[in-house]
UniProtKB/TrEMBL annotation:
TM region(s), chain numbering: 12-29, 35-53, 74-96, 102-122
Keyword line: Membrane, Transmembrane, Transmembrane helix
Top-rank lineage group of the source organism: Bacteria
Official protein name in the record: Uncharacterized protein
Gene source species: uncultured Microbacterium sp
Upper taxonomic lineage: Bacteria, Bacillati, Actinomycetota, Actinomycetes, Micrococcales
Length: 134
C-alpha cells in the first residue's frame, strides 16, 4: 500500500483533534507529542480498516436477495459500530500502555465522531471540485 498525501493530511487532522481532546477532557491523556503522533497513526489505520469493513457490509446489505441475509448483515453492522470503539481502546492500551489513554467508551465514541467530521471537512476543503475559486 502506498501512502497518499491525503493519508498524511488525515494523520495531521487526527493529531490536532487528539491534541484538543487531551486539553479538553482530563480522561484523555497522551504523555508526549510523539505518542500523540503514533496514536494518530494508529487511529488512521484502525479507522480505515473499520470504514472498509463497514462499506463491504453495507454493500452486502444492499445486494442481499433475501431478508435473512439482509438481517444477518445488519446485525453484523450493528456489532461493528460499537465494537470498533472497543477495538480502538484495546489497541491503544496494548500499544502504549498507560502513556496514552483515550478515556472510556463515550469519550472514544465522541473522539471518533469528531475525527471523522474533521477529516471530512478538511477533505472537502482540499477537494478541487468544491473549493471556492479565488
Amino acid at each position: 500500500m502506498r501512502i497518499r498525501p491525503i493519508d498524511l493530511v488525515d494523520v495531521l487532522v487526527y493529531l490536532v483533534v487528539l491534541g484538543l481532546f487531551t486539553q479538553l477532557f482530563p480522561a484523555v491523556i497522551s504523555e508526549t507529542f510523539v505518542l500523540a503522533l503514533l496514536t494518530a497513526i494508529l487511529l488512521k489505520v484502525v479507522l480505515e480498516a473499520v470504514l472498509w469493513i463497514k462499506k463491504r457490509v453495507l454493500a452486502r446489505i444492499r445486494a442481499a436477495e433475501t431478508p435473512a441475509v439482509r438481517i444477518v448483515n445488519l446485525i453484523a453492522l450493528l456489532l461493528i459500530l460499537p465494537g470498533s470503539k472497543f477495538l480502538v481502546l484495546e489497541l491503544v492500551a496494548w500499544a502504549f500502555g498507560d502513556s496514552v489513554r483515550l478515556g472510556g467508551f463515550f469519550q472514544v465514541t465522541l473522539l471518533i465522531v469528531v475525527l471523522m467530521l474533521a477529516r471530512g471537512g478538511v477533505r472537502r476543503l482540499l477537494d478541487d471540485r468544491t473549493a471556492p475559486a479565488v
